[in-house]
Amino acid sequence: MKAMVQGGLSRVAAVGTCLEYGLQSGPLAETLPARPVTPYGLGKDVLRRQLEALSRTLPFSLLWCRLFYMYGPGQARGSLLPLLAAAAARGDEVFPMSGGEQLRDYLPVETVADLLARAALSPGAEGIVNVCSGRPVSVRVLVERWMTENGWRMRLELGRYPYPDYEPLAFWGDASRLFAVLS
């Protein structure tokens, strides 16, 4: 990165993760401090801090896009919605999952790609920007919606799996800054 900036690159758009926020709850704004608790979140936070330090010594603008939850083509097979699709394809009658009360911020990967491109091309956009919908949805509602949209009929075995200890129950992005950058 340093060599590219020294070579004349004037703008860097990089991708972070909502896991940089750690265990903070509710609508998460970019003004909140990063408090990562996972190796992935910590790695992204360290990268952002290094890029910010570099931007203070070399002339370039930095846009750090914190992605929230996404789904769609290319998603890991062990993720919730691919597991749901696999269970439906096998003809399972029951889908085991957590209690489903977690509030999350989900977007289709195509929408995330569009928002990333638009933010990166927005003149003057710099600093941290959440790439999210700004609308929390419960995991249970998301699963039920997918089942309805795809005509899948399975009983949900709610509470089979515990809630993850690395995410709070309510965890979604504040999209105000994103909307301002894109307007």
TrEMBL record:
Q: Which EC class heads this enzyme's classification?
A: isomerase
Q: Which SUPFAM superfamilies match?
A: NAD(P)-binding Rossmann-fold domains
Q: Name one GO molecular function term.
A: UDP-glucose 4-epimerase activity
Keywords, comma-separated and alphabetical: Isomerase
Give the Pfam families listed for this entry.
Epimerase
Q: From what organism does this protein derive? A: hydrocarbon metagenome
Domain (NAD-dependent epimerase/dehydratase): give its ranges. Answer: 3-131
Give the EC number(s) listed in the UniProt record.
5.1.3.2
Q: Which family does it belong to?
A: Belongs to the NAD(P)-dependent epimerase/dehydratase family.
The name this protein carries in UniProt is Udp-glucose 4-epimerase
